[in-house]
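Supplementary Data S3. Sequence and structure tokens for construct A.
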Amino acid sequence: MIMFNVPPFIGKEKYYINQAIEHYHKLSGDGPFTKRCHEWFENKFDTPKALLTTSCTHALEMAAILINIKPGDEVIAPSYTFVSTVNAFVLRGAKIVFVDIRPDTMNIDETLIEAAITEKTKAIVPVHYAGVACEMDTIMDIAKRHNLYVIEDAAQGVMATYKGKALGTIGDLGCFSFHETKNYSMGEGGALLIQNKEFKERAEIIREKGTNRSKYFRGQVDKYTWVDLGSSYLPSELNAAYLLAQLEEAHTINNDRLESWNFYYNELQEIANMGFIETPIIPDNCVHNAHMFYIKCSDIEERSRLIEYLKQHEILSVFHYIPLHSSVAGFKYGEFHGEDRYTTAESERLLRLPMYYGLKKSEIEKITKLIKEFYIL
């Protein structure tokens, strides 16, 4: 059986976890491994402040609190995304205004954002699908002219860039995921990257249950107390230790995945050129991170048949998001602005193929051979 996903494992994770247990005797959050992860993000991505969180969902929730989302506010986002992207703002009382996606990248269509802005709009939340950047220059220009915040959902975007800038470091705030399905994993986990320096101090407080505990540990105050709203967004040192081992080998993991992605692409170009499928498009200004390899079938029925065909040959492939605007909660908490020209139609065609660190070339050869047989024989 070729699995759809295998969580990344470098080998040093166990050593670091044992260090946390036996050497540092520190299992709760913000110990030495968490601090080393923070330093890695800040140095690698040239970001003023990075904070590990228990999930990307919680990073997004922190972002919603930091920009002071209130009932009646509106947030613009794509419908083709995971529910956490919008739930974070709905929890604060916001209405979600969905706009259509681009069919080439499956990202929010930047040309449709401005028409969706009202006097109630507070933020734009671009989602970098598959680790391929949204058109951020246009989005940032719109945000600046309309005095809006930009919260990047870069859950899939670690190690990817737009015009040389790391995804998650272009907007006011950026959110990463380290779920077991992501390129770098701590099982469950995430990070908040803070570009807007006015949020640095308050982010620490929100993350520490609304207390100024971080200042206390730095010796800036002689005792800590409750000063703001917040929650417990700190992952344990065991999670941070697992992640650090992978961050230290980030390029090794990235290069391995890119090799697999390129091999998929080359092997499937023949039937793509024949018009049977479509393969991913990477815009010139983007450097992706091979988070996923997907193909597009002609329609949902063909996709279902191909999924079943691969499954019969012990290969697990999956479709992805059901557009949020068509869900029960989507009707309740949001609305789609303009025409749904691509979101639903393209989502029903997309099929994700197995992609993970350590995927063998022989396994990709088997997968692509079966896809060719499905279409040509």
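Construct B, processed identically:
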Amino acid sequence: MIKGGNRLTLLENGAAYFPELIAALDGARREIHLETYIFAADATGLAVADALMRAARRGVVTRLLLDGFGSRALGQGLLDGLRSAGVEVLVFRPDIGMGLRRKRLRRMHRKLAVVDARVGFVGGINILDDLHGRHLSTPRRDYAARVEGPLVADMHAAAQRLWRLVTWSRLGLRRGEDAWLKPRVEAVGTQRGTFLTRDNLRRRRSIETAYLHAIHRARRDILIANAYFMPGVRFRHALIDAARRGVRVRLLMQGHSDHPFYQTAARALYRHFLENGLEVYEYHATELHAKAAVVDGQWATVGSSNIDPLSLLLAREANLVVHDPGFAGELQASLEGALDSGAHRIHRRAWSRIPWYARFASWLAYGLIRGAMGLAGYAQGWDRPPRRWGQGGKHADHSGPA
């Protein structure tokens, strides 16, 4: 449901996000809830941990929900310190295990914070330093949003649902139903938006459906920046249909990736995109971790959801969808800056001349990922085999060798 009366602030990179988050944590009076996929014990992570501990020590109910896979490297010492200070810490699916079992693949990928049920944060930024990583000399590019107004009630409700779900799955832990604040819902601004979550129950397609509705309604311009972009058939066809009716469709993806195998697989789709009128760019200035899009300068989204089978079919995700030209324009200007200053455009003719072994590697990686999804029982929900690798025709799927 679209709700008006909000004040929404775009936050680019950790340099903008973490000071706002820590200030909100330090200003908390009654309740903090923080969810993150990765919590790293670097300088940024320790600063956030210190703010959480300060809040708990002054009597604020402070909850931290971590993913058991994404935050598996977080040391027990820091966890013990958080708990000793009074922070309630829960881990989503701590038993990682091995293999391709569905439970292992269903991760908590959300990056969400709600403070005193009156201010929220949502986006793609994990709790780790902007320069955390082997290849980074400049900060990774990512986005989040600060939210005030009626949408915070939806964020608070989502946080409460997941916390209770994880709590109820742990024997011996108190449920704490009465400990949650009642959100403030009065209008504080003029911006309209929707807070969306993806889970494996009633909200399986909510984020993908929001994207598809915006793409189907597009008339001029679609700009998608997504770190792990491997869309299924419906999403690909929607983009191609938009391009065929004259919409400019631009895709900004990683040039430097922390998952090279996954990037190789994603490149298997490039020829398909290029032959159907889409513009493809790779961002090389630093690591692109964004999950953001703008349509016609009016519709925008930032969040945690990639456009790939893991995010759209398996993980718990959270995105903010904004219907506001000011917010959309600010995000578009930032993404346009990334295109102009740090991205390389992939041209159809040049891409067709890449070595055969590179095309084969892309095809093989893509096939392995699709095979893994099939073994986990999710292939039909994401993709179907192309009629023939490289076949032409309407909506032909050139998603084999790049």
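The radius of gyration is 21 Å. The chain has two domains: 3-194, 206-382.
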